[in-house]
Each structure stands twice: as C-alpha cells, then as structure tokens.
Design brief:
The complex is a heterodimer.
Chain A lengths: L3 E4 L3 H13 L3 E7 L6 H5 L2 E6 L10 H10 L4 E3 L9 H9 L3 E2 L4 H6 L3 H10 L15 H11 L3 E5 L8 E4 L2 H19 L4 E5 L5 E9 L5 E13 L2 E7 L2 H5 L4 H15 L4 E9 L5 E7 L6 H8 L3 H9 L16 E8 L1 E2 L5 E2 L2 E2 L3 E2 L6 E5 L6 E2 L6 E9 L2 H14 L1 E2 L6 H8 L2 H5 L6 H8 L10
Parallel strand pairs in A: 1-2, 1-4, 2-3, 4-5
Antiparallel strand pairs in A: 6-7, 6-8, 9-10, 9-12, 10-11, 11-14, 12-13, 14-21, 15-16, 17-20, 18-22, 19-21
Helix pairs in contact in A: 7-8, 13-14
Chain B lengths: L2 H13 L4 E5 L4 E5 L8 E5 L5 E5 L21 E4 L4 E4 L15 E2 L4 E7 L2 E6 L4 E6 L6 E2 L4 E7 L1
Antiparallel strand pairs in B: 1-2, 2-3, 3-4, 5-12, 6-8, 6-11, 7-10, 8-9, 10-12
Classes of the chains: A alpha+beta, B mainly beta.
Chain lengths: 460, 155
Amino acid sequence: MFEKVLVANRGEIAVRIIRACKELNIRTVAVYSEIDANSMHVQMADEAICIGKAASSESYLRIDRIISAAEVADVDAIHPGYGFLSENAHFAEVCESCNIRFIGPSPRAMNALSDKAVSRALAKKAGVETPPGSEGIVENEKDALANAKRIGYPVMIKAVAGGGGRGMRIAHNDISLVKGFHTARTEAEKCFGNAGVYIEKFIENPHHIEIQILGDNKGKIIHLGERDCSVQRRNQKLIEESPSPLLENKFRKLRDKIGKAAIRIAEAARYTNAGTVEFIVDDAGNYYFLEVNKRIQVEHPVTEEVTGIDLVRAQIEIAMGEPLRYSQSDIVMKGHAIECRINAEDPFDDFRPSPGRIEMYYQPGGHGVRMETHAYAGYTIPPTYDSMIGKLIVTGKDRREAMDRMNRALNEYLITGVKTTISFQQAIMQDPNFRRGVYSTNFVEQLLGGARRELIEEKT
Amino acid sequence: MDLKDIKAIIDLMKKNSITEFELEEKDSKLRLKRGLNGGSPVVQQADDSGSMISMPVSATPMLAPAPAVAVVVNTGEIDIKSPMIGTFYRSPSPEAGPYCEPGTEVNVDSVVCIIEAMKVMNEIKSEVKGVITQLLVENGKPVEFGQPLFKVRPT
C-alpha cells in the first residue's frame, strides 16, 4: 500500500492523478516550477515542492530534482503522468534504484518498445501487420529510392525517435522523396537528437484507431476497447471518441481482432501497467500497427466513461502489486463518449497560442458531462508549456445523443481573457460528415479549407 | 538582546494580543509596536551609542490579510537562495562547527552550507561578497528550489 505518491507532472493530468490518490487515501506531493506556484495541482496536493525555474528543462524534466524532492518528501512512488518523463526508461530505472516505485511500465518493457523501428520488428514477430515499409532505418538516398519503389508511392518518411506527430514528411514521387529524406533527417536530428528515419506506405484516408491496454505484474493483459482519434490538426488530436464510428458502422468484428493484436504485442514486450497500442485502419478495414504509447494518455477518460473503469486508479493499484481485478470478459463497452480538447489557441489566427489570464470561467455540467481541467477564474496560463486548458468529455446512450450533448455543453462553456478553441470544436460537432461518422485524419484540413467563417461563432 | 529574544517577545505579544512593548536596559532600549490590523511589527532598537536602528522583522502572517501598517526600512540585504532540493546542513559534519553564522564575512566562493540530495553532500557557495546577517533555515530541515537560506548584507 502506498502512503505517499509524488506527481511528476503539471496541469490537468496532475489534478487527475491527485484525485485518484485521494480516493485511495494516498497522500500526494506536487512538484512545480516557479511559474506554476498558483497552479491548481499545487493547491490540491498535500505537500508541494518547488523544483526550478519555468523552463521544463529546468524543472519538470530534471530527473535529479524530482528524485531529490521524492526523497525529501519520503514518497513510496512517483506517477509521471503523460509527456515529460513518462516514457523515459532512464528515469524509471533511477526510480527503481532509489527504491521508489514508478507508476508505469517497467524499464525493460519500455526498452523493448524503445523506438518505432524496434516496435515494428516486435509487432511483426507477434504476427501483427505493420504498414508496408523499409526494414529498419534507411541509411541513404539510394536505399530510400529503392524502398519507395518497392512499397509504391505515396510514402511517408518518419523519424524513428519521433513522436507527437513530428519528424514526418510525405512523398509522392522520386523528387519529393529525395528532398523529404534529407529534410526529415535534419529535422529529426534537431528535435530528437537522432537522425534515423524509416519509410512507410502512406495510407490515404487513414483512421487512427488506438486500443487501451492494462497489464498487471503477473503477466495478465487485457484490452479496454478502442478510441478513434482521427480528428487531428497537424498530427495533434482534437477530438477522441469511443467506440469508433468506423468500427461500429462498417467493421464490427475488427474490435476483437485489433484488441487481440494489441494484447499479443504487449505480451511480446512483457508490458505492464497502462498503455495504448496505435493502429492505422484504411477504408477497406485493413489495420496496421503504428506504435505503443507507454503511458496513460490524454484521452483516457473516453475509455473510462464507456467501460466504467478508473484507469488512473488501476495504474496505481497495479504499481502496488495488485493483480488485475478484471478479466477480458468483464470489459463491456456501454454508451458512447466523446472528448473535445479545449486549448488556449486562436482558431481565427492559425491556432496561435493565447496564454494569459483567464478572467471569467464557467465550465459546463449536467448529466453525462465531465470536465478535466486545472483552470479557474483568475488563473494565468503560462506561455512555457502546452496550450491545453482542459478536456470536455461527454457521454450519451449512443453517438447521436453524445454529439447533441457535446453541442449543448460547448454552448455553455464560458472562458474570457484568452482565446480558446471552443468555437472550433462546435463547428466540428455540427459538421455533417463528422455527424455521419465519416471522417479520416484529413478531416480538419478539409474543414479549415472550406469553412465559412460565419459557421464558427466567436464566444465573447 | 539578540534576534532570537526579539522574536520570542514578538510571539508573546501576538499570543497575548499586546500591541506595544518597551524595554529599557542599561545600555539599550527596545520598543516593539504591532500594527492594529495585523501589519508586520517594526523593531526599533537603540544601541548604546544612542542611534536608532529600525529593522523589519518578518512575522508569521496574520489570519486576515491587511495592508502593512509598519514602516519597512530597506537595509540592502539580499537572500542566498537554494539552487536545489534537499536537506539543509549548517556544518560539513555533525561534529564540525557551522560554515557561517550571522556576522561571518563571506566572499563569492565561500561555502555557506551543505544541501544533501540523493546521498550527495553539495557545498553551496555564497555567490555574494558581504556579511551574513540572518540564518533562515533550521539545521536538518528540507529546502526547495529558490528557498531563501541566508540574508547577506553585501559589501
């Protein structure tokens, strides 16, 4: 049983973790940078320790300072949240060597899925298809051209160490391939310190379908259904929902198949705790493994709402050594849930970040409405981190009810002082194609290309 | 009469709701006055040369926030702040004497304390040339990033 847990994160996820700890009667320790002194997670935790200046590299990414804080506060475990150090195997190792439990997968499991090329190889061994692509890193131009010819255009050049949608280039012919190959390598070196790239078939109208998994320390792994995250802008997710309209409408049997494939990959990696296995599904129902996210994800509430299972609580229980309390047959998906990410960005100005002081704040409520946020009236969003204000999650008995309820909730949501993407989310929620459930990852670009400005009402 | 005594008297004043206190001794006179709505108390201490030295004494915050009634004299002191998280120690080892006391002269490179983190004893340098005027943390207590450890009057 943990007595004290340190939350090595900030913002809405830190609040989420603190709440799960409180419900388990575990004392919480928040760490914060100087600019986050008034942040909600600092106020909610039982103890709070300042660990550095505003820059993440001076605070939330400083393993030494976080471990020092953990020792000074004498905690039993650290929850890393998402982003920051959550998928840093070295951090997990340091925790272990300091006798502090890391609430997440083991360092060994993280290393087994260390980068995309390694993960693809593991998936292949587990009998799961990956998008046709190069076997491992493409070393030079000649290699790149040969691979592209074999795979067939269009292709995608991707960084092996990449993530968050960065380090990618599309090529439709030899000329753009050569150019893309070199620029992708340069960008990858700059962003991730690793210039390695591989080439993959680019699937037109791809659907991003991901499977939530949970594994205990005894080797039992289950899946909790899928989330459809195809509504993205520049590879950043905007809306997530469960179940996927594509699977519900066209490919009912795929859920079970993809779920089992996710478990096989997790078992091959000896994965423990919470994770997400990402797939690309095309219009014909072919599915290909993309990567494993070795952490709790931003959009986890969507799965929680349709399965009734508290995933963050499950993470803590697994880390405490408890066996999974559910079997696969216990997992039943009921109803439909949609999550809209609300960012402090100006949708009328190319989504430019809009940090600053929130003046008025009234968040939606009512039956089937859930808010996950750290924001409050008078809170100043710092410019140093991501622009997410919060997540609005809505549940209904079916997709139609969920969408209508989301419309109702977005209409109630009032934030002044900063620009937000609330009105843009409303435009998506009312779009005929989105309502029909017919959309792929091109959806947002197409919507922005053709959107008439008057469809998006600005909230004052 | 040193700082510890003055702090003790202020505490007693707070506990017993006394607003003014005056003490005259052979070579010094001390007058303490508490703001009525709870501002920081002002210490006026006359030394035996007859000049008045006014020092602001940071008291624990009152329950009701109120505008500061007291006059705060800027003595030009600056803080030595903690550059890390750990446990604060005044001496290199339990048997040894402390690195510095109020009154110690320090240079930029003088070690003023140890902060222990992950079993490593880190020597913390003053980074300022001057005279230590106040010790702000108790020996053996945890400190966080940016926490003031000492007050120094630069020279």
